[in-house]
Amino acid sequence: MSAENPAPRTRATRGRIVMLVDNAVNGDSRVQKEARSAAEAGWDVVLLGKAKGKKGQTWQIGDAEVRLLPVPGPLFRRRHEYRRAVLRSPLAYRPGPLAAYRRQKVKARRADLNVRLILARREGSPLARLGLAVPRIAARFLSSWVELRYRRTKALEERRKAMTSPLDRFTTAFWRRTMGDRSWRRLDPHLWDYELAYARVVDDLEPDLIHANDFRMLGVGARAALRARAKGRDVKLVWDAHEFLPGIKPWNPHPRWHVAQCAHEREYARHADAVTTVSDTLAGMLTERHHLAERPTVVLNAPDAQVSPEQAAEPVPDLRELCEVGTDTPLAVYSGAAAPQRGLDIMVESLPRLPELHVAFVVPNTTSDYMRTLRARAEELEVGERLHILPYVPHYQVVRFLSAADLGVIPIHHWPNHEIALITKFFEYSHARLPLVVSDVKTMSETVERTSQGEVFRAEDLEDFVRAVKSVLGDAGRYRGAYDAPGLLDQWTWEAQADRLDEVYTRLLPGGGTRRAALRATEEAGA
Questions:
Q1: Sheet with 454-457: strands ordered across
Q2: Max CA separation in the chain (angstroms)
Q3: pTM for this entry
Q4: DSSP state of 508
Q5: Which end of the chain is more exposed for a tag (fewer CB within 10 A), N or C?
Q6: Burial 186-215 (b: 16+ CB within 10 A, else e)
Q7: How far apart are CA 415 and CA 270, in angstroms?
Q8: How far is CA 244 from each of CA 257, 418, 442, rounded to the nearest angstrom?
Q9: In sequence order, what DSSP letters do the residues of 294-308 get, joined into one string?
Q10: What angle is formed at CA 326 by the lines to CA 457 and CA 387, rounded to 5 degrees?
């Protein structure tokens, strides 16, 4: 089935849920678990994600269908990036490949003239050498002229990306003042590329409920719900807010990007029939920011307590074997997204002070610029053989994979979103029964101090990090024993969170029955 064709309803279900996410699904354990558990509970689930290339894909997660849609990006570049800046930089070439073409063409011309001069000298022809004098002088002059225009073109491109000039600041402020929350249409029209890629597919699927993950998909889901309601279909919208958007460290360096995303979120938040999020603190912040009628339901990023027989039968890679270390070698692991604000550098810097410790980074991109930087730093410190960079494993293998380590590390820096939630890796480490070493971000450090499952260190403080690691390695059994507390791990399972999410769906679509009844019917049918 192609990614664009609508899925027929071939079995009786509690209703159709279309889930939206702005990534390629693989690597996003939350949306995978949401889709699978909703399908298990009797919903007809189609999860739409973003393809990495120009070709769509489709596969199954349990009974849920996954489709990846190509998202062309012609609106990614702003309109002014397609025009010449006659007043701002009159010597710059027009946008596009012309500057690089002219520069290369002049280099080729000079290279050709140099070869012809060599041949003229070999042949001993003064006239031939004299005949090349004028073309060579002209080529040298033209080369200087083209190089000047090339540098002006590149400088203009950088200024346009930075958008820090008085004119850029004025236009940004103008659109925000005159258009308010609608200003994202001018500040980041690339958001329309997602709408145009997803909209027709969502409409064709005719969902009963749309589950929009995070801020980009909120607008796509809200507009789809509005179109359906205009046609007489009462489609419900659930917005799953993964983070506090004003508090993120923008990964897009364009200064208008963050402003535009916040405006886009504010415009469409009011259209959500229900909101879910990842922590109680964030639920309160979202309620206040968007004046929500009811507090969002908290659905934690917890791992599965159980896996299917098919998943359990798959061999799990051996972490220590991949690191080429034995069980007597202390091994610290970090699993998750990798970026400077995640603080992984402190783990590398600590290795000379912890001479027996090995460190494993389990990350989505093992060859990213950040990983290469950390690898180079380890080599500089002469500890490269004790740093191991490994790729992700499937989300249902994470806990078993990580359990071979001696401690799990979460060294994140102080950013608003880091302070307010227990992140996915916290629960994964916990179910792997790993002693923890975590930075003193608010929610996570308070939890670790309450449960005694690890040590807290001051973020970005190398001496304190080394102290915490030594403390954990010196008495690992005591920290692991914290997980024996009755009910501690039971509350941190996806099964418990799936019940909460299903309660939201059931409240919005009360005619579909309950999750427990659907699961019971499935078990009886299987028997």
A1: 387-391, 358-363, 331-335, 407-410, 436-439, 454-457
A2: 99
A3: 0.81
A4: H
A5: C
A6: bbbbbbeebbebbeebbeebebbbbbbbbb
A7: 26
A8: 15, 10, 15
A9: SPPEE---PPPSS--
A10: 50
